[in-house]
Write a structure and sequence with these properties.
Elements: H1 2-10, H2 27-34, H3 39-44, H4 51-56, H5 60-63, E1 65-67, H6 76-86, E2 92-94, E3 117-119, H7 127-134, E4 142-147, H8 158-165, E5 169-174, E6 190-195, E7 226-231, H9 235-250, E8 258-262, H10 271-283, E9 285-290, H11 293-296, H12 301-304, E10 306-314, H13 322-329, E11 341-343, H14 366-375, E12 381-383, H15 399-403, E13 411-415, H16 422-427, H17 467-474, E14 480-484, H18 514-519, E15 528-532, H19 541-549, E16 555-559, H20 570-577, E17 585-589, E18 594-595, H21 597-603, E19 611-615, E20 620-621, H22 623-632, E21 638-643, H23 647-661, E22 669-674, H24 680-684, H25 689-696
Parallel strand pairs: 1-2, 2-3, 3-4, 4-5, 5-6, 6-7, 7-8, 8-9, 9-10, 10-11, 11-12, 12-13, 13-14, 14-15, 15-16, 16-17, 17-19, 18-20, 19-21, 21-22
Helix pairs in contact: 7-8, 9-10, 19-20, 20-21, 21-22, 22-23
Protein name: FXL18 protein
Domain F-box: 19-66
InterPro entries: F-box-like_dom_sf (IPR036047), F-box_dom (IPR001810), FBXL18_F-box (IPR047948), FBXL18_LRR (IPR045627), LRR_dom_sf (IPR032675)
Length: 711
Amino acid sequence: LSLFHQEVVSEESEEESNGVNLMEFSDEILLHILSYVPCTDLVLNVRRTCRKLATLCLDKSLTHTVLLQKDYKVNKDKVKQLMRDIGKEIYQLNMAGCYWLPSSTIDHVTRCKNLVKLNLSGCHVTSLRLSKMLSTLQHLRSLAIDVNPGFDASQLSSECKATLSRVSELKQTLYTPSYGVVPCCTSLEKLLLYFEILDRSREGFMLSGQLMVGESNVPHYQNLRIFYARLAPGYVNQEVVRLYLAVLSDRTPENLHAFLISAPGSFAETGATKNLLDSMARNVRLDALQLPKAWINGSGLLQHLKFNNPFYFSFSRCTLSGGHLIQRVINGGKDLKSLTSLNLSGCVHCLAPESLFRKAEDDIDSSILESLVVSCCNLRHLNLSAAHHHSSESIGNHLCQLLSRLKHLLSLALPVCSITDVGASVEKPPTTPNLVPQTFGRKVRIGIQTYPRNLGDQTNQKIESSVFWALMGSLRFLETLEIIGSSFSSAMPRNEPAIRNSLPPCVRAQSVGDSEVAAISQLTYLQSLTLAQLPNILTGSGLVNIGLQCQHLRTLSLANLGMMGKVVYMSALMDMLKHCKCLRDLRLEQPYFCAGAQFFQALSHCSSLQRLCIVSRSGTLQSDAVMSFMASCLEVIMCHMFMGESLTVCKNLQQSIVRSFQAERPALNVVIFPLLHEDLTEVIRDVPMRHLDEITLFKSRVAEEPPNLWW
């Protein structure tokens, strides 16, 4: 924005400067540049700088689609002015996750008479407000909303229901047992359901999965093409989703081509769901499939399902063997060039011919992986995490060598034990013990750097000959990488108390450390990086290489690196952060982490940082350092810290941050709380879903959903 102001002012004195004047560019080039500026800035600020920009900023290419979902500086007044100025020109409006805006803000959406797509997920919308708004949006075809406690479908007007009857795409997040607006949407082709219903109320009462009185209307699925349901942990979510599926089991839509249900834990198959799957096997050909593990394990379902041109498969946490994967899904090496996304997370036997007598730690069958790579040569997203994928000593058949053939990969998730060189893991004992008794942990000194400044200083001169180094070199366009220990579990589960003990890393992972991290620095276009449970991190020197070379890095998540008794990589991390100018999200999970003045001073170099989450058992923080950091990093709107400090210290710091910065940062969300406190789950339930799902809770996100599931 300031660049435009400077250039416009310089128009009057061009002879004083040899620089290029932006206003001399063609309209096409200027429109392309302006497309990177938030719409609120374009309409409310930039267009007031000169006549030319006043015209360009209102071009249809810039006002057709308005994205406010991560415009954390937008407030009610800005939204009101924006709708007043260009409301009639807006055809697509995305306000997803604008949790800080008061519910009255939604009233201004009624000015957008031509809206076709509207996303209000994460916004506060009552039944009456929804009814009033939808009554005026006669052209609406795509809608995303939340259904909160108190939602009453009987309050929806006939005009509102008429609008809903024309909606073909619906995304609905449920926080209470309800059909929401689904029964009103008689023309549905795409239905996305997110079940976030808790088993207990705030008062501690057990909730029922039965729908509220007046919720007996039946959903209309006859035109459905895509059905997607994602369940948070809890039995109530399972009860409610069964009610949605009951209608599908009676009559399967003929045009159904994507059927996806993501359910954690055990979600038992019933007679109704079995009838549904049998009907699907007889009547439809699918392009995308994801089912609960209990529905696949031990059944011959995959042998009977028919596929057309599949683009997404997820067999997460299933006991599917590699033999079944090749025979029933890939059809013995069938050409699956259409498949772009594959999730095999937690599928421990997927690279072995059979699972009956196999141990999870046994070597993989490289021929199965080779068949997968050859058949699915256009894969862009692949998740092999949460399993022990150990390569044999056969030359040329290492997992990393085979994966290097997938030249189109954009995101990849691997277990730590899968990237080690076989010889190194067998011959080289762990350099340092990875487990230290927690009670004897000591804080690390962070004043002097003790790691090699350059890669050439590493004692291991064979880094560049490793199979993982070669893999990173072959995937130059990779944007997302996750390297996660096969036995890693976060200290912060969703609806349970914090975990106090973690399982030891896999034996094959003991040699994975600084040199492997340094290999990641070859990924020039890397935007998101997750590293968890790398036991042989000694200094963290590879992090510095990443900071220097991966200048597009926006999201960084580090967990349980090196020894568990102290933070051995602190000095390197601070040096790395000084180079991360584009970093927006940082998540750190490490016991005994000291969030002190030097750490926050280094973090202050990340001028683009918006969200910070630190999870540390027995970790400490310095309140003054946190306040100084918040004052210097003006873009930070989320600060979550779950440490070992007392409740009093945490509450005082949280109140100080809110009191000092809430007024100028409307989206500010601060949670500072003792990690092992018994009320942690109650605190977590108040965190906005956007932050909880994207950063606060640890999980593998590669191929978690089909690509472009929602806009």
